[in-house]
Write a structure and sequence with these properties.
single chain, alpha/beta, Rossmann fold, Dihydrodipicolinate Reductase, domain 2, 2 domains, seven-stranded mixed β-sheet, six-stranded parallel β-sheet, 8 helices, 13 strands
Length: 295
């Protein structure tokens, strides 16, 4: 049995993952991950943490995050604000405890690099980011990009997802990370540059690859999410249904624990962090920003 500790209770994702793991399936009455259990949680808000623990049948509430060490086999860091991910994840990584970090994986590029450096030095399993990169519609778009399908060779594309520039959780980074990760999962992690602009709270960013470019539209309160692919022989319009995203992501986390191999390379975890920072720099400084990669 893998015992998992959740770090951060403010996010609805804490409820979602506890529900996926600790609550039996309503239809079958069986646990979806019988070899896993979320056994402990730490949060900054006592009342909220108690609520998540009660609803998610989490037995132990830690007064300090370090109190979970020695009691869990892995940690899931799920704070809403990405700037909290480095300080709360780092002690677990440095202790060799496999760690999953929610979106945004980090806000600052240098924070992500510090996590990768620590994971490498301590030989710690590390993964995370947006759960939406694993939904079936994103994977279908990825397949169409790689295999051509009926539209033939891809010429250009666009994707949209909601994001706001002002909120208490880091602005565009809070929800914009979803769009950055979906885009790179579908179209590739080897983008060369990005040029972006902002108008009335909406951000449009053109991600340039060697042979194509993809337009990302960050739209506040957008109700529907689509990918549109323009190919040599036709156009593909795919609505992005995010149903089941938490289950999809926990399956990847479970796979990592069972196989002792991360489902994502450091390069793939880093690229969307760098991309989103480049988007912000581009519309703020009104210039095209080159992407350097993890290096």
């Amino acid at each position: 049995m893998f015992k998992i500790g959740i770090i951060g209770s403010d996010n609805s994702h804490a409820d979602a993952f506890a529900g996926v793991v600790n609550i039996p399936d309503k239809k079958t009455g069986e646990y979806l991950f019988p070899d896993f259990k979320i056994t402990g949680i730490f949060g900054l808000e006592k009342k909220r943490t108690e609520e998540v623990a009660t609803n998610g049948k989490i037995e132990y509430i830690a007064e300090r995050p370090e109190d979970l060490m020695g009691k869990v086999d892995a940690a899931m860091v799920v704070f809403r604000h990405g700037d909290l991910h480095l300080p709360y994840a780092l002690p677990f990584i440095e202790s060799g405890i496999p760690t999953w970090i929610d979106k945004p994986f980090c806000i600052k590029n240098e924070d992500a690099r510090k996590l990768f450096d620590a994971a490498s030095r301590h030989n710690t399993l590390l993964t995370g980011g947006s759960s939406l990169k694993y939904v079936s519609d994103v994977l279908m778009v990825k397949s169409a990009v790689e295999n051509g399908s009926r539209i033939g060779k891809l010429k250009t594309a666009m994707v949209n997802f909601p994001a706001t520039l002002e909120n208490e959780y880091g602005g565009i980074y809070f929800y914009g990370a979803h769009l950055a990760e979906m885009t790179m999962k579908a179209f590739g992690y080897n983008a060369r540059s990005v040029v972006a602009s902002e108008n009335s709270g909406c951000v449009t960013a053109i991600v340039k690859y060697d042979a194509i470019q993809v337009t990302m539209n960050f739209i506040p309160d957008s109700k529907e999410n689509f990918a549109v692919l323009f190919g040599e022989n036709g156009t593909m319009v795919r609505e992005i249904d995010i149903t089941g995203c938490y289950l999809n992501e926990f399956e990847k986390f479970a796979q990592m624990m069972r196989t002792r191999k991360s489902p994502e390379s450091f390069e793939h975890l880093y690229a969307p962090v760098e991309l989103l920072n480049a988007v912000v720099r581009s519309y703020s400084d009104k210039k095209e920003i080159r992407l350097k990669g993890l290096g």
